[in-house]
């Protein structure tokens, strides 16, 4: 977000409820259930107490498998994303709720209607993280199955989002929307019919849900490929990225803002929020020791083995994880549920891992920990707050999507100990409300401009 000359840029924070990964230490006695709403309520209300912009939820369409086995530390039993964000919106008042929902296996009319409904019921606090599912493993859940080739994934996502925006814009008449909110019958003649026939969708409908208080849900995008960056520059309002070092973040921000300008959009119409893990201790030394303990809990032997087998493309069950990396080269090619990777990429990756292991005297498991479980911000509260602020003031990000290692109480220490320091620095809000905006929507809380009209739909002969 662009700041006024001489003013400090404001930090944006998002709370990610983890699960579809090995970040969360489920073996910790304090870990909560994923089917007990108390976990989600505590997490959501803690984030709201810390004045976060929104709560962010991943979606797991299937429990992940590796070599025919359920992946260690994955989540089984979590309810569907739309149900959870609806429930979390009901037990909060100001914070936004954003759900990850795939554009590959959903349909525009139904998903747009569901999101618009929750947006109304929450007072305009909903966002949609648009993802493109890439594999036949997830496709097995759906009638058409299979998976889309890489270029078609974003082509379908682009068409999906464009249709959704037209559906959300169909009730653009303010008087008509006001009548609907008072329970009066709508005049069908004043509701735009949405008709479209394109490569992936054929739609002909009159939307049933009025335009929401924020226009339409905030569009979030998570993807780092060239196609993903182009999609974000054209469609997204928040990017959730993995670039968590200052130098990588700065390069990513520069690249995306160039694409944003090429798409004809304003620089303040998109926020870049990398995912970040954190460990807060009484001192920097305490936090560093805790970080080591958490990393070893996150990467169990089973998780380390699965990670290495994915790179080597072969069964490594006989590997001593406390010993060196495999001496064999990775297999030529591996097809895993519709996803392929090249031997060149994996062999180069393996060579780099061996170099790291030799340089630092690391075992196989320690290499995986070093590659996947190094926490972004580690230190005393002042250290963590100052480092986050350095990224934002330096233009490497607009803030962070924070991923705690413990659910539901893993966010508590950050809210209680780091947030007050950011507030003292004058770079973080002390309330959601302002005199000019007593009831903010998610869009206004993020400082985003009003949504722009979407590109025209295609209508071709059948």
Automatic annotation (TrEMBL):
SUPFAM superfamilies hit by this protein: Bacterial luciferase-like
Domain Luciferase-like, chain residue ranges per copy: 27-397
Alphabetically ordered keywords of this record: Flavoprotein, FMN, Monooxygenase, Oxidoreductase
Matches recorded under InterPro entries: Diverse_substr_monoxygenases, Luciferase-like_dom, Luciferase-like_sf, NTA_MOA
Region Disordered: start-end pairs: 433-462
Membrane-spanning residues: none
Alphabetized PANTHER family for the sequence: ALKANESULFONATE MONOOXYGENASE-RELATED (PTHR30011), C2H2 FINGER DOMAIN TRANSCRIPTION FACTOR (EUROFUNG)-RELATED (PTHR30011:SF16)
Family: Belongs to the NtaA/SnaA/DszA monooxygenase family.
Protein name according to UniProt: NtaA/DmoA family FMN-dependent monooxygenase
Species name: Leucobacter tardus
Upper lineage: Bacteria, Bacillati, Actinomycetota, Actinomycetes, Micrococcales
